[in-house]
Design brief:
Length: 342
């Protein structure tokens, strides 16, 4: 289904947009904004995660280390900590060590047979797999079955309460938490990113953003007219009406209303993007990874609230369970950090 004509009516029909959303939204001029002294930050852990996911009360993350010596060893770990933790209070759930290079990547969580598990991507030299480990630390990690060829080394990993979603070079896949057969959701090459909505998987190929139904959803998917630049990041806001934010690494826009929300500024690049239901959040740094800043914005007008961050900051993670919607987490070069804002 192409959304070039009659898109408003179609969105109303499938519940993605309310009547007030049709034609609403005005592009607003946006500046970088000054650094806010009202934002406070603290370290959760003295380590720089590769992937982070939040639950209602905890953070779970993967961490990669190189142990220099003879021979060189690679030791990677899955951790758990409460959102209010201080460094040293984290718990190691699983550690794997090898003399051959390998990498722990994205992480998600879900329940299978009454047990909560953390699911994480592991990239070996010959293949990438998904493993799972009990989140209470009661057992070892095991490799999920029937995933050969379906796991990209740096795939995003999402869970929606029933399925685990991931991608490779051929498309996007869904698998039950219990580890049965991986089912194709989207079959397309060159997908750059994807995110989840209640009924759809939103994904990007070049400049085109599309959506495909999840398993069991009877409404068909579709595509929007190409945006101005190739899409590298997506964030979905499950409000009514919904929002689909996208970025090419230099600016943030909203798809359903064709509105501009902000830019990284000259000589800067956006490293990550998220949304907490009220605010759209992103991190931008110089192209060399320095002078990073987090931006928090509630509307298209005006400048975002901003706070300076350490070099090489990335992986912004909104606290979507926070009723005050006033906290996010991110990864710096050395730490997993927590930021609170008014």
């Amino acid at each position: 289904m192409d959304m070039r004509n009659g898109s408003c009516a179609t969105l109303l029909a499938i519940g993605l947009l309310s009547p007030l959303g049709c034609g609403a939204g005005v592009d607003g001029a946006d500046g970088i904004g000054s650094v806010s002294e009202e934002l406070t930050s603290a370290s959760v852990a003295h380590m720089a995660p590769a992937g982070v996911v939040e639950s209602q009360g905890n953070l779970y993350w993967t961490m990669n280390r190189t142990l220099f010596g003879f021979p060189v060893r690679y030791s990677n770990t899955v951790y758990r900590a409460s959102k209010g933790s201080a460094p040293g209070q984290e718990t190691a759930l699983y550690t794997e060590t090898s003399t051959s290079p390998f990498y722990f990547g994205s992480i998600a969580f879900g329940m299978a047979n009454g047990v909560w598990y953390g699911y994480f991507v592991v990239d070996y030299s010959t293949q990438s797999v998904i493993k799972r480990v009990p989140l209470d630390g009661s057992g070892p990690a095991v490799t999920m079955n029937d995933l050969t060829g379906h796991v990209g080394a740096h795939t995003p990993l999402y869970a929606d309460g029933s399925y685990l979603y991931f991608m490779d070079g051929t498309g996007i896949w869904a698998m039950l938490f219990a580890g049965t057969i991986a089912n194709p959701i989207v079959q397309a090459a060159n997908i750059t990113t994807f995110t989840l909505a209640p009924s759809f998987v939103w994904y990007a190929v070049g400049k085109t953003i599309s959506y495909a139904p999840k398993i069991g959803v009877s409404v068909s998917g579709g595509s929007y007219p190409p945006v101005l630049f190739p899409v590298s990041m997506l964030a979905y806001r499950p409000t009514s009406p919904a929002y689909v934010f996208w970025s090419d690494g230099t600016m943030v826009s909203e798809l359903l209303r064709s509105t501009y929300w902000g830019s990284a500024g000259s000589g800067r690049m956006i490293t990550s993007l998220d949304d907490d239901g009220t605010h759209v959040l992103w991190i931008d740094c110089t192209t060399g990874g320095n002078a990073c800043a987090a931006r928090v914005k509630t509307s298209t007008s005006g400048s975002p609230v901003s706070v300076s961050l350490p070099d090489y900051s990335r992986n912004i993670q909104a606290d979507s369970y926070d009723s005050a919607q006033s906290r996010f987490f991110y990864t710096s070069y050395t730490d997993l950090m927590r930021v609170t804002y008014p």
